[in-house]
Amino acid sequence: MARAAGARGCGRRWRCGRGALVACAAWTAGWVLAAALLLRAHPGALSERCTDEKSRRILAALCRDYRGGALAGDLCEDLCVAGKLRYRRCLYYDRGKKVLQADWRGRPVILKSKEEAFSSFRPPGPLGAPAEDGGPALPEAELLLLVAGEVRSALGLEPSASGLGPLWPGRRGPRWRGQLASLWSLVQQEEFVLLSVLRGLSPHALPVLGSCGHFYAVEYLAAGSARHRALFPLDGAPRGRGRARAVGNMALSFLDLVRQFDHGFSHRLHLCDVKPENFAIRRDLTVVAIDVDMAFFEPKMREILEQNCTADEDCSFFDCFSRCDLRAHRCSAQRANSNLQVVCDKIFRHWFSPTLGGSAVSLRLQRQLREAVQECADPHGPQAAAPTMFWKLRRLLQAALRELREAEK
Predict the structure, then answer these.
(1) What pTM was computed for the model?
(2) What is the pLDDT of residues 180-197, one digit of tens each?
(3) What is the 3-state secondary structure (H, E, C) of 277-312?
(4) How far lies 192's CA from each of 89, 112, 113, 136, in Å?
(5) Helix, strand, or coil (residue 355)
(6) How far is CA 51 from the centre of its chain?
């Protein structure tokens, strides 16, 4: 009777099973999609909790490895022996990446690594092989080739011998093996490699100050945030005209950053994650890119974009996208938007709203700036006009700053 009732309630038994399976699959797919959208919008949603206790344990393990000779670096002595590099607080953990604030000889710095443990960066067999002289058995030329291969993988560029100079540990000595293992852990971190290559070439990139094992140090600058009305902390800047002048100068600095990243290096440097939190400003209002995990030179950008596709939506990589060739079902390797377009969209739109221009800037000029920013921010606009748009924005910003100066006389 029970079996008959079940048959009447569901019809044939296999239909019930199939319906339940379809419903379960739809429910699961819905949750997977929701989770994916959550992580895309808030990548730190499932990140590990950032605590002082764990951060201190991580640095204590780093110093144990240093004292044991497993790693080396120009900051290890200050961190582990002299006490001149002192942990201050945990800033964030993000999918393995550890970012800590410290004080180094009286100045605030950031300590970074994309992995918690030094052992996560395993050297290739030849580097780990024992040798009688205390160093690796491979000759230096072959070691250089191994390191160059890692740099090529990180940047998509063929590094020159001179370009590897800042990364090379120098002459062999008692700590050569630790130095080489530390170098290997660092060249597997794309941001470290990029910042090392850009060192001394741009005021808009942070210089690497030193390293200890797999952690490297950069200058501490307060990151931007959507919580700030001007996106960046303007401590000491007067309100009204003073704040409008600061915004104008920051906007010009962003334009200078865009021009340099587009034309100042051997290859264009693409910014694929533009948001206030990834930038900071110096006291002179120079904009600095403080998180370049998602910055790629042209060859690497082409490699990332050129994927299989069925529609344009498949050709997006965060803020960088191309178009889908529907005949070949391949994304174009040529980026369709630009650094300038994304900066206009993610930064300038907020600044040049109707209420931020300041009464000292004429209404006509405020309107021209708003319209130019809206045109620039359009991701489907003609990118061939980007150079013209760059100079138009620069001219309008300089005009606005002139009006603000004249109003203060």
Answers:
(1) 0.84
(2) 899 999 999 999 999 999
(3) HHEEECCCCCEEECCCCCEEEHHHHHHHHCCECCCH
(4) 21, 9, 9, 24
(5) coil
(6) 22
